[in-house]
Amino acid sequence: MASPLTAIERHLVEQLLSPAASAQHSSGDVSHAELRPFVSEISRISRSYTGHEVGETLAQPVGSLLAAEAYALYYLPINAAKVAHLAPLVQSPKRCLKVLDFGSGPGTAPLALLATIPNNLEVVCVERSAPMRAVAERLLKSWKGSTSLSSLTLTPSLPQDGELFDVIIAANSLAELGQKDADVLLKRLLALLGPQGFLIMLEPGQPKHTRRLMEIRDTLIEDLTPLFPCTRSTLCPMLASSETDWCHGSLTWSQPPLSRQLDSLLGFNKHRIKYSAFVFQRGAELKPGVRVIVPAERTRRGIEITVCGEDFYGPVRIKKGQRSDDTRALEKSAVFDRVELSEPPQAELSQSVVTTSSEL
Ligand SMILES: C[S@@+](CC[C@H](N)C(=O)[O-])C[C@H]1O[C@@H](n2cnc3c(N)ncnc32)[C@H](O)[C@@H]1O
Fold first, then answer.
1. What b/e readout covers 183-202, taking b as 16+ CB neighbours within 10 angstroms?
2. Model-level pTM?
3. For a substitution probing ligand 1, which of 128, 169, 200, 213 has the most ligand atoms within 8 Å of its CB?
4. pLDDT digits (tens, 9 = 90+) for 206-259
5. Atom 27 in ligand 1: which residue has the minimum CA distance?
6. Do residue 73 and residue 110 come from a single domain?
7. Which of 110, 208, 288, 331 is deepest in the core (most CB within 10 A)?
8. What is the C-alpha separation between 77 and 260, in angstroms, rounded?
9. CATH number of the domain residue 212 falls in
């Protein structure tokens, strides 16, 4: 079976490119002539993102159908990969989940959820750009997978308070808001999140956007339980202890072929994708263990791994001569892996510690 991202790329090609390009995509590269108009739009959109000052409102860079399609062809699979990575955190006994996607663009996050989680979805896409809404409608309504889209609403503004959602997503959309609008939005999203509801916030993997998201995280912990990356319910120690550190990870994905071809035409490289994200759940238990922030580094005194957990932030050391099968999970863990230790983390781990690790 095709991976979720390969299936999503195939769907984009079938819906947005010509039948000839779709046939070419099945066996190799798509013709440059077909991609050329999209490539120049993607370059223009990219320049407007990189030139945008964090905390200022971004002037709408996607104002035409061509721009919305170009965004979908290039950015949708990249952002969907991040949502798909986090989607297993959304665990609910409900057969159908009500999903609100703020700044949905071409339907990136709902498509990623449809391709990865077992629940059917009732989706509300909030999107100010009419061409983005048109592309989202086309892509979501034509999606055929094992889980289904029970209903789809596309609207330029948030629903009234009173309606409650099981999953709320804001992916790469807070980045486009000025600070005042972002503050108002967060209050509204909190009011719309139902009991046991999940809030997924993703931002571009850049230091300033990430630091801003870390500040937002600190304002949400009174109401919501962090599920990712934090395994702590208190203020972010990285934010408090450094002016520059930013809590981010990077995904290695099997980049689908059109994404690779567009990268090569654009001179970009999304072989690995940096991301910053926070996932919360209302009324949930905190996850046990610590999150790896800096993976294993050799020092004179042993192996050090920087971790963050409920009562601990900093390096833990496995002393020379104490490495064993029991410490291997911690030693081998990557950034954002969650590691459980058989005893509370401390700067120097004891000889008897046993570690186990998982991705989420
Ligand atoms: C960078 S795109 C992200 C699209 C999608 N979430 C993704 O991750 O690929 C941000 C989207 O947010 C939308 N947006 C920004 N401000 C908005 C607002 N105040 N109301 C509704 N949509 C907004 C923009 O039009 C744009 O389509």
1. eebbeebbebbbeebbbbbb
2. 0.96
3. 128
4. 999 999 999 999 999 999 999 999 999 999 999 999 999 999 999 999 999 999
5. 105
6. yes
7. 110
8. 11
9. 3.40.50.150
